[in-house]
């Protein structure tokens, strides 16, 4: 823990946050800090708590701004209650440091699923997209912009109870529409590969920017790379995004038209999030997802969990060994049946 603001703020499993949340294990990271699985000692349930980056060593004004930002994130996220968005439960202060307490969904991120299992088919991507768009439409209606929609912030539930549940998470750099922008300038926040062109050019995010970022996320799920490709240099990538030159998708099928509308360089020509949701849901229905649009929004979308790819490879190796053994046995039989070789 921090001592007089001079040492790093370090916690470990077993630490009790704010006298209530017992840390179990670190499960990830977000835009502002580490995410832990914890046990709510009062209500007897597992929760996810985000350890906001420590204010240790900061100037007083900077530390106060960091705490205010965490509290603002909690307030913004608490405005949203939706089946496809992670629910914010509490903002807790522990030794003066803020922690965000939220719903825990046993899950893999969409980024992890794509890394281990490859791209997804049109029907699954359309259904995932419709559900995320529905949650983001609700956020926009509540006056909240996400500003960092990307595969790493999309969770796909796993386990018997949560398999296929899709939720958007991490409103860590979100902003309420109408909030005052801090006077101190800084770098553009977000992930360049999923920026809208206007954001890459330095303009403020809008609901249309979230639409673009969702389109870029779904494009990645279909194509395996973001719509502007990848580059080790963030600066080069930002300039490429700013020009708005999207690489046309090759695997999108019936999703090509809705995706390209969402990825329109001019934000005024993009659909609203509600329109994007309806277009995506219609594609999901046409692609074979059962039921009407409302059923698509409520359905689960099971995908291959992270790590299962290795298991498939193990099965393939066993199968190969079996086939090889059979071939060797057949070869031996044929040699024996043919009798001794004539020299």
Automatic annotation (TrEMBL):
Its EC number is 2.7.11.1. Signal peptide: none annotated. The keyword Transport does not apply. The keyword ATP-binding applies. One of its GO terms (molecular function) is protein serine/threonine kinase activity. Residues 21-282 form the Protein kinase domain. PROSITE patterns: PROTEIN_KINASE_ATP, PROTEIN_KINASE_DOM, PROTEIN_KINASE_ST. SUPFAM superfamilies: Protein kinase-like (PK-like) (SSF56112). InterPro entries: Kinase-like_dom_sf, Prot_kinase_dom, Protein_kinase_ATP_BS, Ser/Thr_kinase_AS. ATP binds at residue 50. Keywords: ATP-binding, Kinase, Membrane, Nucleotide-binding, Serine/threonine-protein kinase, Transferase, Transmembrane, Transmembrane helix. This is non-specific serine/threonine protein kinase.
């Amino acid at each position: 823990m921090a001592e007089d603001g001079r040492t790093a703020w370090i916690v470990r499993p077993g630490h009790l946050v704010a006298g209530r949340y017992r840390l179990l294990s670190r499960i990830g990271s977000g835009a502002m800090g580490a995410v832990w699985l914890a046990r709510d000692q009062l209500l007897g349930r597992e929760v996810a708590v985000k350890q906001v980056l420590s204010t240790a060593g900061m100037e007083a004004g900077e530390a106060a701004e960091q705490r205010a930002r965490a509290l603002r994130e909690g307030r913004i996220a608490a405005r949203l209650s939706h089946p496809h968005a992670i629910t914010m439960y509490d903002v807790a202060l522990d030794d003066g440091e803020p922690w965000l307490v939220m719903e825990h969904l046993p899950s893999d991120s969409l980024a992890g699923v794509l890394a281990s299992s490859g791209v997804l088919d049109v029907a699954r991507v359309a259904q995932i997209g419709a559900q995320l768009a529905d949650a983001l439409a609700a956020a926009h209606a509540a006056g909240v912009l996400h500003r960092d929609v990307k595969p790493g912030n999309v969770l796909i539930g796993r386990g018997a109870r949560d398999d296929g549940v899709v939720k958007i998470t991490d409103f860590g750099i979100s902003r309420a529409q109408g909030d005052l922008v801090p006077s101190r300038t800084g770098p553009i926040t977000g992930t360049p590969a999923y920026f809208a062109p206007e954001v890459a050019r330095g303009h403020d995010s809008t609901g249309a920017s979230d639409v673009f970022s969702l389109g870029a996320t779904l494009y990645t799920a279909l194509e395996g790379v973001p719509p502007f490709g990848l580059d080790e240099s963030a600066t080069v990538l930002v300039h490429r995004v700013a020009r708005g030159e999207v690489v046309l998708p090759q695997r999108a099928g019936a999703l090509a038209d809705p995706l390209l509308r969402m990825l329109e360089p001019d934000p005024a020509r993009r659909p609203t999030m509600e329109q994007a949701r309806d277009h995506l849901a219609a594609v999901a229905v046409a692609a074979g997802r059962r039921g009407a649009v409302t059923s698509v929004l409520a359905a689960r979308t099971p995908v291959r969990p992270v790590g299962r790819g290795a298991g498939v490879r193990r099965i393939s190796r066993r199968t190969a060994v079996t086939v090889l053994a059979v071939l060797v046995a057949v070869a031996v039989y044929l040699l024996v049946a043919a009798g001794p070789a004539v020299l």
